[in-house]
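Lab meeting prep.
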Amino acid sequence: MSMRWRLLGSFVLVILIALGTVWVVARYTTEQEVQTFLGHGGQVGLENLADSLVSYYSENQTWEGIESEFRESQGRGQGPRFGTNALGGDHILTDADGNVLISSDSTEVGTQLLEEQLGSAISLEESGEIVGYLIPEGGVPELPDNFEELLIERVNRASLLAALISGGIAIILALVLSTLILRPIRALSQAAQKMSEGDLTQRVKIKGSGEIGALGGNFNQMAHSLQDAEFRRMALTADIAHELRNPLAIQRAHLEAMQDGILPTNQENLTLIADQNQQLTHLVEDLRMLALAEAGELGLNKRMVDLTELCQETIQRFEPQANQKKIKIIGDCGNQSLYAVADKERLQQIYDNLMQNGLRYTPEEGWLKLSLQQQGKQAVFTFHNNGPKINEEALPHLFERFFRADKARDRASGGTGLGLAIARQLAEAHGGKLTVENHPSTGVIFKLVLPL
């Protein structure tokens, strides 16, 4: 469930519970307060008794039988017909003319009460007409002058109590719901704080879907990427130091030997030092180019390039090197010219790297196939040899800096270890992509895709 719906559901739940609590508590407490207040005036139950009497008259359209009905009610223990305030010896019932029907004083039964006595009685009305009078014990008590104020005060007190109870329940419920909702956010905040202190191993466990689940997944992915980047940074530093140390050590050893007279200062020894210096220069240039490409600051001299012609030129340039290793280059560049807006020199750098890499790992008397095909609005170069396959675990890392699938090979036979990383960056700088996969039968396939 998304955060929006979780919050909305929480708010609706709190509101409904608060309103329900107010309604229940206010109804109950108000009823109790009003009944208690009126009870102090001696009127508790009189309205129910009057309603019961009117209901009896409405059913029978006469007061005849009210005495027997009342006696049966008393015999049944003052049943529900007249409730707990059934006409006993304390109340008087008369008809519309004031003739006494029921009274605790049997001598009053049948007599007619005066208008003054009926003036303080409770009128019993049916269909808008007075059908009788009910005189409670001691008469109808007079209400105090400030009756409205007292009643409103009690109702307000009941409403305040209901508001306090419902507010307390709503606050408790809001605290519980907010704790449940904010728990994963708190976990993310704590993990982020530890990451800011340098602990890149932090991960969060967030269940469910929605925004919080996605945020937790993104955080874990970010933490993994940062940890991987830190590992790569340290590995890169170590690799650069290693790559620089060997040529420098060789140069220093030869220079010191020549200074001490152990080695003669001749063309052969100077050439060896120059070769090591050239290797250092090449490594530094590769690092500079890779850094510029990764930063998106590598300048490209783009113009219209015939990819078919470039494919044929690449095959011709590498044929002598292939013949030395008795490797056959199979070219399939097509007959139709395919054009792309690109930097020809940079594209040639990609092809050279892939061709050198392919020839390096192709066995003698093997073959290397270079093909060019058009797929929609894209040109696809395929470099495929019949050399050994690459370990599946190593394939995702093949374009990383200084990564070597074959650890046994040294830099002299395998270059600087930056060629494939540079090739991919150059391909992406042209809006294309460079991928690698093992062929189902034999060898490895590199695919360079460029927009036409």
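Slide two material, second protein:
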Amino acid sequence: MTERTRRQFLQDSVFVAAAAVSANPMFSSIAKAQARSANERLLCAVVGCRGRGGSHISAFSGRKDCAIAYIVDVDEKVGQDCCRSVEKRTGRRPRWVKDMREVFDDKSVDIVSTATPNHWHALCGVWAMQAGKDAYIEKPISHDIPEGAALVAAAKKYKRICQVGTQCRSNPALRNAMKFLADGGIGQVNFARGLCYKRRKSIGALGDYPIPPEVDFNLWSGPAPYTSPKLTRERFHYDWHWQRLYGNGDSGNQGPHQTDIARWGLGINRHPNSVIAYGGRLGYKAERSDPDYVDAGDTANTEIAIYDYGDKCMVFETRGLSVDNSADKQINKMFDSTRGNKIGVIFHGTAGSMVQKSYTHCIAFDLKGSIIKEFKGGGDHFDNFVQAVRSRRAEDLNSDAFQGHLSAALAHLANISYYLGENNKVSTAQAKAMLEKVKSRDDNIETLNRTVQHFRDNGVDLDKYPMSMGPLLTFDPDREVFTNSDAANRILNREYRKPFVCPAPDRV
């Protein structure tokens, strides 16, 4: 730590006590926990400060029982701006570092909170817990399935508190609505449909673009391989979501919120038995009126995934093109809107249905479509995490590593099916023939027809630019491997770039 930071700590007796604890190697973990409780402040490091990272900074800097000691970002300008913001709000300036490993070496740090790009989530969390820190990790908890399992294993092995940023788990609207479902409010519920109808424009043409000079590209890339000395997308920040080396498309960006809620309402706490996905990255040629246009993204902007659990089923629909004035009559009615994004979950029961309309609002209907009950209210997911850090009871968490792993894995499973079938271009008739054979509690053909209409409404000529159909993949929920595809198993995990290697679950 710099001398400036030390002086700041010494100005506050809270930090003096924390430093004394960390400096004494004979201090037991129990005594340290007691000292934290008495001193009321937990020292935090926020890793990755753009976008969602700003919410992490606001949450921890706004608490009297926490203090941000470090801001970690590979972009110095962004990092220093955040340090100034924290200083203005709290009177104490955190230390900026660009390499998260410096934080792990500081024994006084209690919490590591990360909102890095997806490809860094798991490794940051594993390293933090190996260093004795508790971790708050944004969704998706992982970039691929073994990484999620590694986080679950690390939390258990090192007895760390690991919260996942699926904050709906802490919102009263959702907690009360899920209890209503569990109590039979709309009868027996065996099917849920998650929606991410969220407009995403093209991220620009594929090409070589300069890396921003203020960014340490080695640290930013971390576990991911270098693409080249230059980028393949025009905008460096955020648009990595739509490139599979770093992100997981909206299947893994928005999806873990909705698939998490769908699993919760269905009472499912395991991986599915099978998955099949279809769709494509279509429509941008029509928008640009250029048949040769190649968008820099390589994840689907429209993807339908069907998950079979035996007695229960889940479907997740992602749409990135315009969703205004769509032909989805029943969905439009439940969301009471024909325009704009529709992000939520619809549960179908034997005595009615329920829609999660927003993060803080759910509505239950009877079989005639009349409203029978509404649920509203937001919560504080960060507070739930901090309270669990103090209690040392992982069971106090509303969204632990295991739940985060299951929900992130749904995105990875669907994307694997899609990637394997990316070159399997099918006509609407061929897609229909294939989906008629897929076990589901959904009307697969009706969902296909709505998807085809969505493409047509956005000017997509499916004869020229057909959809891709992935294979039906069967999955062993316990061993976390595919049982009918060696090709799928080969892309379950990524090749890591040393030294940024996320360990296997049995080696954390």
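Talking points for slide two:
The chain has two domains: 3-169, 174-204+249-379+401-493.
Confidence is low (pLDDT under 50) at residues 1-35.
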